[in-house]
Write a structure and sequence with these properties.
Elements: E1 2-3, E2 9-15, H1 18-27, E3 77-87, E4 96-111, E5 114-127, E6 130-142, E7 163-167, H2 171-180, H3 191-197, H4 207-222, E8 227-232, E9 242-247, E10 250-254, E11 260-265
Antiparallel strand pairs: 1-4, 2-4, 3-6, 3-8, 4-5, 5-6, 7-9, 8-11, 9-10, 10-11
Length: about 270
């Protein structure tokens, strides 16, 4: 494990523009409700704090190349594995905010498909000099030489849900989410790349988009969130209809074949 104290930290400032949150609500088919002075829905901070990179600093997959805050481990392929969030205070639309990011840990392991790198980033979102949100973001890095993604062991989803919500995706929604979060990862909008280079069956639904939908379901059914954690377990392809499931404070995403795609706890 790499000592996180030796790694860089960075700060990014942004104005929490309500128009961007409204655009996302509309993309999700929701009634727009965010106005200046109103609290943001949980996880909507993903729409802010863009970090544009020029073309020569991007990897083959459209993501910024590794190096700097995330050390170059010789593993250029990236997947968002999961995260943990603590909501201390709601972020307020129309007010400036600062995102402070540091690297918590870097680990090297060997999996069934070869070497793997695990990185945990710590994001703190401050507004009016007050810590509002803390997020631990877990990333996995894989070798570029793999022909196709590492195949996860498919786990059947549990069948004891108290509430189930069906959800479907379109390439338009994936494109809009990529645009609103400034996510250039080609597996979400370039079908040929996703299929021919990384071996998926089609466009891959963003892990954080699935987590976002679970958070909105949890808040709607359980009330305001103070903590939320999630872990991706299998990819979901955009042509598949998924089920958002909940029992108590446990939530999960089930694919159409019954496989577990994500687990979470509110």
């Amino acid at each position: 494990m790499t000592d996180a104290s030796t790694l860089q930290q960075k700060c990014t400032n942004d104005n929490i523009d309500p128009a961007r949150a409204v655009a996302f609500q509309i993309a999700l088919g929701q009634q727009p409700s965010v106005k200046a002075g109103a609290p943001l829905p949980p996880f909507f901070h993903q729409l802010y704090f863009w970090e544009p990179h020029p073309p020569h600093e991007l990897g083959r997959d459209g993501h910024p190349a590794v190096g700097g805050l995330i050390p170059d481990m010789g593993l250029p392929r990236r997947m968002w594995a999961g995260g943990k969030l603590t909501f201390s205070l709601p972020l307020i639309a129309g007010v400036g905010a600062e995102k402070r990011t540091s690297c918590e840990s870097v680990q090297h392991k060997t999996g069934r498909s070869g070497p793997l790198g695990f990185v945990t980033l710590r994001h703190e979102i401050w507004q009016n000099e007050t810590l509002c949100l803390t997020e631990l973001q877990d990333l996995v890095y894989l070798p570029d030489e793999i022909s196709g993604p590492s195949k996860p062991t498919l786990v059947p989803a549990r069948q004891d849900a108290e509430t189930i919500s069906a959800v479907s995706f379109t390439s338009t929604l994936l494109f809009r989410y990529s645009a609103l979060t400034f996510n250039g990862h080609r597996i979400h909008y370039d079908t040929d790349y996703a299929r021919d280079v990384e071996g998926y069956g089609g466009l891959v639904v963003h892990g954080p988009l699935l987590a976002q939908m679970l958070m909105l379901k949890a808040e709607d059914e359980l009330g305001p969130l103070t903590r939320f954690s999630f872990r991706a377990t299998a990819p979901l392809i955009h042509s598949e209809t998924a089920s958002l499931c909940r029992k108590g404070r446990d939530l999960w995403v089930q694919g159409p074949d019954g496989r577990q795609c994500m687990v979470a706890q509110a």
